[in-house]
TrEMBL record:
Residues 842-1094 form the P-type ATPase C-terminal domain. GO terms for cellular component: early endosome; endoplasmic reticulum membrane; plasma membrane; recycling endosome. It catalyses: ATP + H2O + phospholipidSide 1 = ADP + phosphate + phospholipidSide 2. The active site is at 404 (4-aspartylphosphate intermediate). Residues 34-88 form the P-type ATPase N-terminal domain. It comes from Oreochromis niloticus. Keywords: ATP-binding, Magnesium, Membrane, Metal-binding, Nucleotide-binding, Translocase, Transmembrane, Transmembrane helix. It is found in: Endomembrane system; Membrane. Belongs to the cation transport ATPase (P-type) (TC 3.A.3) family. Type IV subfamily. It is an enzyme of class 7 (translocase). This is Phospholipid-transporting ATPase. The chain crosses the membrane at residues 61-79, 286-309, 339-358, 906-926, 956-978, 990-1012, 1024-1048, 1054-1079.
């Protein structure tokens, strides 16, 4: 039933009722329905002891490649296939086991962490006494005692604290990275209950929304049953203490649990983001489809040719093996069985181990970013963080960078510059985020001081800025509640806030004679110029949000009620009815052009009747349980009107170190940079010029509300389109990026309102076209774009628009605040800056870096290397598997299509697992085709790998053809050499296993030497792995065929390898075939490097020439033994291919 206190009741069901202390409500008030809630156990693990094997197997076999090899393995078990099931089962088992061990170990660590959290002790008030229990046994409705520096065990509603005003201070660094102390409030009716027995007497219920993951939103109300009428009070995020936050500067608090366990906001934020896939992974999947088609084609061809070959009865049914009548009639089943057998025989062309190698390369390679000392920021004490390693190579493919301005390009370190009151400008000396610079002893006045009549207006402006904020005063030395530091001019207290702007403004007012002292018992105290303490009752706070772009406070002083409002000029001027608007507007525009951040300040006096109306509007909105935000926004809109303009402020946000150099380097690399900001156009444009996004010769094109008011949007768009296309001749800028110096640079500026109009669906009619396409056409021909007055959702819309454009470019979004999260999640790669606006961006990003300048090395060096390495890895895997399987295909033409394997089972099994896996893994981790210093100095090298150039279809086809060529050389080279069957000195003939072993030996050495020729960066690890893998193959072959293994039923390879090596012609054939296989690739590269070198290859040649001169100088100055040592060290490859491998030699 609905009782009188249920103000703002709606028809909502998505809520819960919590009984504080598990006490039933008084009879006749409401029905007592005890709801069931989960306990406080946190479970971040995926598996249990019982479900690990089935659940992990299910997840692994959901991958197409694993499922494919499982089917092949089952086929080998069911039907008579030419190869042992071990050949498919062992690699599959290896892949599954390695992955399961890795995932199992990670989950075991999560179990350990969960147990540590779930078993930590908490203090609960029970029957007037404090009892201790484990955190996992906490229930919704329990009253919890939390002491200073303890973390909150679940989501709590604050009831009371050790402080008289019922407030407490909390840090949420573990949730959002904000280290500042935030203030939380107890309800007025419960804040006096600050002892266990008193708290136990509280009789109340809480109605609130069901759990949801937004850390900054909470809607509820508390119904307190007193002797008289029940009292309802609103509850919001200012009353909610989140699990994981820590109590600070407060001795203790009492609070009631409302969300526990996996329903806490922190646990709900565990949910992983949507999976992003890189362009390389998409190419890899496309190649797999092609090779699967090749596999099926091979199987079909061999099956058909087998029956053609068997059409001769003498070949199909020799006299010693005639078929029965039943066998002759089962043609269809036999054909299908033969097809499956050929599929099994050729299935190794699909490399199952490639998936494991790629995963290991990404996982291990990500540590190079985290270990990079050049990406360590000493000021923050932070290194780069990799939240996902799946996108490493995508860092080398970025075409568009979308960046926030404040805190990303700038330091978010605000310095108060000036304020303007009714046209009079005040400029205090250097005040920067609470730090008063030496020598700042007074106040400079640009204009003359106002007259006595305007003095009251001036002081009202200063008071407004001292009162309209959420700044806290952190005290280091207090005596009897008086801040001696402030009174004596000592820095014993300082201001902290989640917004650096507010700190700068309050410090600015301090330098101008008005000092904010503190907020105590609902009263704000300020110290005026006469050293008198003024007290104001804080009645309401209308909090800031990114939609309104303003905040307000309602205060009472000496019977007068004032509403003070500050915000962006675009949100204040339309609500102003009087004041010196023109003078203030002119000063705001001048400051914006200089790149300063501006805010306007206004006020409104409220009489008792108006305040009562305001109070009722706010109270109704605050007590609403459904659409509270919407109702509050409507109430704020009605209250913040009919304002009187007081003046404006200007603060400076300095550009980050090397931000301009980073943007310039990105431009040279062919990356387009867009700035998406909520700031006004003039301020953002000044920052863009300072950061070299726009140059002085850049022709600025405006697509703003001001211009669309003069012309229609349709006309403006078509005019801008004609302007850029007239210069570029109808071609996009990318077409002639190399000739950028010969064409006009265009920069586009668009604001949020115009963007909304552009993003609307295409208008009907002859004069209207598709505005999105026209807008994209203009943007493609601009070197840089500035989007100002952007809402967070619009930032994501811009990124999505570019992603979905015709070219499908790779996008990167970078920002530091919660308003950047949407675009970070939308972009292909999201990077968070460890800034001063919390860690929401860092938590939701794929990578996190301390400063914007680190983006340069992340893209131009790490991204470049990652892409080069993994593209070689993917192409090389397919290449070596073509070399591996194509001789098997050719062999069927010489064995009557009988599915006879060419290689031994051990070789089939270990080829991808042992013999050829480690060299390519090491290459993909350590290869540096160009020194990283050169990559940083010459950003143009980034263009050589743009648009997935190393994994395009022509390159893929070349590698495939090269693999087929090598396979033909290996097979037919060995075949023709075997024409002389007396291969050994004693006249003994070689058999088919010796033939297969010879081909396999040439194969292993060829693909390994191929990788060695492609390696540019040699270390002792490379030498050890590459030559060690070849030695391992030889040793294994000697042991496998030189010992009688008791666990084998038969040994067809016994003494085969030793017999082959005892033959001189076999040695000669191995050397000749390896040389013949590698020679065309070597010749092709020499010709291409000579006639059509890329920028990268020109750099390599220049580097080699420089190093040659250094070596020659060293040769003349050193002694002979040292020279001999150097010659021994570097002569491995240079005798084969000087033009190609000298770079390798000297790295």
């Amino acid at each position: 039933m609905c009782v009188p206190y249920c103000v703002g009741e709606e028809n909502w069901v998505d809520s819960r009722t919590i009984y504080i202390g598990h006490k039933e409500p008084p009879p006749g008030t409401e029905a007592f329905i005890q709801q069931r809630f989960p306990d406080n156990r946190i479970v971040s693990s995926k598996y249990t002891f019982w479900n690990f094997i089935p659940k992990n197997m299910f997840e692994q076999f959901r991958r197409v490649a694993n499922f494919y090899f499982l089917i092949i393995f089952l086929v080998q078990l069911i039907i008579d296939t030419p190869t042992s099931p071990v050949t498919s089962g062992l690699p599959l088992f290896f892949v599954i086991t390695v992955t399961a061990i890795k995932q199992g170990y990670e989950d075991w660590l999560r179990h350990k962490a969960d147990n540590a959290v779930n078993q930590c002790p908490v203090h609960v008030v029970h029957h007037g006494k404090v009892v201790r229990k484990q955190s996992r046994k906490l229930r919704v409705g329990d009253v919890v005692l939390v002491k200073e520096d303890e973390a909150f065990p679940c989501d709590l509603i604050l009831l009371s604290s050790s402080r008289d005003d019922g407030t407490c201070f909390v840090t949420t660094a573990s949730l959002d990275g904000e280290s500042s102390h935030k203030t939380y409030y107890a309800v007025q009716e419960t804040k006096a209950y600050n002892a266990e027995k008193e708290v136990d007497t509280i009789h109340a219920t809480i109605e609130c929304e069901q759990p949801q993951p937004d850390l900054y939103k909470f809607v509820g109300r508390i119904n307190i049953y007193m002797t008289n009428e029940p009292v309802a009070r609103p509850l919001g995020s200012e009353n909610l203490l989140l699990r994981g936050a820590t109590l600070k500067n407060t001795e203790y608090i009492y609070a009631v649990a409302i969300y526990t366990g996996m329903e806490t906001k922190m646990a709900l934020n565990y949910q992983s983001k949507s999976q992003k896939r890189s362009a390389v992974e998409k190419s890899m999947n496309a190649y797999l489809v092609v090779y699967l088609c090749i596999l099926i084609s091979k199987a079909l061809i061999n099956t058909a040719l087998k029956y053609v070959w068997q059409s001769d009865p003498n070949k199909d049914e020799p006299f010693y093996n005639q078929k029965t009548e039943a066998e002759r009639q089962r043609h269809l089943i036999r054909a299908f069985t033969d097809f499956l057998a050929f599929m099994v025989l050729f299935n190794y062309i699909i490399p199952v181990s490639m998936y494991v190698t790629v995963e290991m390369q990404k996982f291990l390679g990500s540590y190079f970013i985290m270990w990079d000392d050049e990406m360590f920021d000493e000021e923050l004490g932070e290194r780069a963080v990799v939240n996902t390693s799946d996108l490493n190579e995508e860092l080398g493919q970025v075409e568009y960078v979308f960046t926030d301005k404040t805190g990303t390009l700038t330091e978010n370190n605000m310095e108060f510059i000036e304020c303007c009151v009714d046209g009079h400008v005040y400029v205090p000396h250097a005040i920067c985020n609470g730090q008063v610079m030496p020598g700042a002893a007074g106040m400079d006045m640009i204009d003359s001081s106002p007259g006595p009549a305007a003095r009251e207006h001036e002081e009202l402006f200063f008071r407004a800025l001292c009162l309209c904020h959420t700044v806290q005063v952190k005290e280091e030395d207090t005596v009897d509640g008086i801040k001696h530091g402030i009174h004596q001019g000592k820095s014993t207290s300082f201001y902290i806030s989640s917004s650096p702007d507010e700190v700068a403004l309050v410090e600015g007012m301090k330098r101008l004679g008005f000092t904010y002292l503190r907020l105590k018992d609902g009263r704000m105290e300020i110290l005026n110029r006469e050293d008198e303490v003024e007290k104001f009752d804080l009645l309401e706070v209308l909090t800031f949000d990114s939609v309104r772009r303003r905040m307000s406070v309602i205060v009472r002083a000496t019977g007068e009620v004032y509403l003070f409002c500050k915000g962006a000029d675009s949100s204040i001027f339309p609500r102003v009815i009087s004041g010196k608007v023109d003078q203030v507007r002119a000063r705001v525009e001048q400051n914006a052009v200089e790149g300063l951040r501006t805010l306007c300040v206004a006020y409104r006096s409220l009489n008792p009747e108006q305040y009562e109306e305001v109070f009722q509007q706010l109270n109704r909105a605050k007590l609403a349980l459904q659409d509270r935000d919407k109702q509050l926004a409507e109430a704020y809109d009605l209250i913040e009107k009919d304002l009187i303009l007081l003046g404006a402020t200007a603060v400076e946000d300095r550009l980050q170190e090397k931000a301009a150099d980073t943007i310039e380097s990105l431009h040279k690399a062919g990356i387009k940079v867009w700035v998406l900001t909520g700031d006004k156009m003039e301020t953002a444009a000044a920052t863009c010029y300072a950061s070299k996004l726009f140059h002085r010769n850049t022709q600025i094109l405006e697509l703003t509300t001001k211009r669309t008011e003069e012309q229609s949007l349709h006309d403006v768009l078509f005019e801008l389109s004609r302007t850029v296309l007239r210069q570029h001749g109808g071609m996009t800028r990318d077409t002639f990026s190399e000739l950028s110096g010969d064409c006009t640079d265009y920069g586009l500026i668009i604001d949020g309102a115009t963007l909304s109009a552009v993003m609307r669906p295409g208008q009907e009619g002859s004069n209207s076209g598709n505005y999105k396409e026209k807008f994209l056409e203009i943007c493609r021909n601009c070197s840089a774009v500035l989007c100002c007055r952007m809402a967070p959702l619009q930032k994501a819309q811009i990124v999505k628009l570019i992603k979905a454009s015709e070219e499908h470019p790779i996008t990167l979004a970078i920002g530091d605040g919660a308003n950047d999260v949407s675009m970070i999640l939308e972009a292909h790669v999201g990077i968070g800056i460890m800034g001063k606006e919390g860690r929401q961006a860092v938590r939701n990003s794929d990578y996190a870096i301390p400063k914007f300048k680190h983006l340069k090395k992340m893209l131009l060096v790490h991204g470049h290397y990652y892409y080069i390495r993994i593209s070689e890895l993917v192409q090389y895997f397919f290449y070596k598997n073509v070399c591996f399987i194509f001789p098997q295909f050719l062999y069927q033409f010489f064995c009557g299509f009988s599915q006879q394997p060419l290689y031994d089972t051990a070789y089939l099994t270990l080829y991808n697992i042992s013999f050829t896996s480690l060299p390519i893994l090491l290459y993909s981790l350590m290869e540096q085709h160009i020194n990283m210093d050169i990559l940083k100095k010459d950003p143009c090298l980034y263009r050589d790998i743009a648009k997935n150039s190393l994994l395009r279809w022509p390159t893929f086809i070349y590698w495939t053809i090269l693999g087929v060529y090598d396979a033909i050389v290996m097979f037919f080279g060995a075949y023709f050499l075997f024409d002389n069957t007396t291969f050994t000195s004693n006249g003994q003939m070689f058999g088919n296993w010796t033939f297969g072993t010879l081909v396999f030996t040439v194969l292993v050495f060829t693909v390994t030497f191929k990788l060695a020729l492609d390696t540019h960066y040699w270390t002792w690890i490379n030498h050890f792995i590459i030559w060690g893998s070849l030695i391992f193959f030889v040793v294994f072959s000697l042991l496998w065929g030189g010992i009688i293994w008791p666990f084998l039923n038969y040994q067809r390879m016994y003494y085969v390898f030793m017999q082959m090596l005892s033959s001189g012609p076999a040695w000669l054939s191995i050397i000749l075939l390896i040389t013949a296989s590698l020679l065309p690739d070597v010749v092709k590269k020499v010709i291409w490097r000579t006639l059509w070198p890329t920028t990268t290859e020109r750099i390599q040649v220049g580097t080699n020439a420089c190093r040659n001169r250094e070596k020659l100088s060293l040769h003349r100055s050193n002694s002979a033994p040292c020279l001999l040592q150097g010659r021994n060290q570097f002569c491995i490859f240079t005798f084969k291919l000087p033009a190609f491998t000298q770079f390798t030699v000297y790295y």
